[in-house]
Amino acid sequence: MAIDKETARRVAHLARIEVEEAALEPLARDLSRILDFMDELNEVDVEGVEPMTSVTPMTLKRRADAVTDGDRQADILRNAPDAREGFFAVPKVVE
């Protein structure tokens, strides 16, 4: 797929990237090469290939998904510069 200079300018604008006028043509060529490579990857037969999370086989560590209270409010608030009624107290910023 060929990307022209105007499309490269539009992509840069959408990405909020300032690109010099002289750099638009090389950017368009680079984007075209990336899209061509993606087309090549789409031609690969991946039927029956399981997705991987890593190149080395491993199992993810799991823990029980149990809801706990924690019961650590006092420990957490002990480091707060200002705590009131069991919550962090912060300066008022809106009148």
Descriptive notes:
By secondary structure, this protein is mainly alpha-helical. It has a domain at 5-42. 39% of the residues lie in helices and 4% in strands. The chain has three helices and two strands, in the order αααββ. A two-stranded antiparallel sheet has the order 1-2. A hairpin with a 2-residue loop joins strand 1 (83-84) and strand 2 (87-88). Helix 1 (5-14) crosses helix 2. The radius of gyration is 27 Å and the shape is flat. 1% of the residues are buried. The mean pLDDT is 90. Its EC number is 6.3.5.-. Belongs to the GatC family.
- Tally of strands: 2
What is the H-and-E element order? Answer: HHHEE
List unreliable stretches of 5+ residues: none
List the strand order in the largest sheet: 1-2
Shape: flat
The first-to-last residue Cα distance is: 56 Å
β content, as a range? under 5%
Average of per-residue pLDDT values: 90
Radius of gyration: 27 Å
Estimated helix fraction = 25-40%
Largest beta-sheet details: 2 strands, antiparallel
Derived from helix and strand composition plus strand pairing, the structural class reads mainly alpha
What is the number of helices? 3
Pfam families: GatC
GO molecular function, one term: glutaminyl-tRNA synthase (glutamine-hydrolyzing) activity
Catalytic activity: L-aspartyl-tRNA(Asn) + L-glutamine + ATP + H2O = L-asparaginyl-tRNA(Asn) + L-glutamate + ADP + phosphate + 2 H(+); L-glutamyl-tRNA(Gln) + L-glutamine + ATP + H2O = L-glutaminyl-tRNA(Gln) + L-glutamate + ADP + phosphate + H(+)
Keywords: ATP-binding, Ligase, Nucleotide-binding, Protein biosynthesis, Transferase
